[in-house]
Amino acid sequence: MLVQVTEILAACQQIDPEMRAGPLTQAALATALTEARSYQTQIQDLELQLITMRDKRDASLSELWDVVKRVRSTVKGMYGDDSVEYEMVGGTRLSDRRRAARRPTE
Fold this sequence. Notes:
Blueprint: H1 2-15, H2 26-79, H3 84-88
Helix pairs in contact: 1-2
């Protein structure tokens, strides 16, 4: 869109520097184009910041997940995998796990 407006503005200046589109002057169009470019630049900068923040968040969540796994593993080792303590830290107790279905033998 910005490219089209730039091309139209350049063409209008070549055709007639005083040409208007109704009440819209070429100067007003140039001002609006500059403003739109400014917004586009700001959006691109913010998108880069957002990507950086998402990367930092993902790294932080990955570290937290490692801590969760370590805590669960520690509790499982200390109290067993069928203990209430293991369930309290988010583990699934051995007695609550579904048994594997038997497959018919051929």
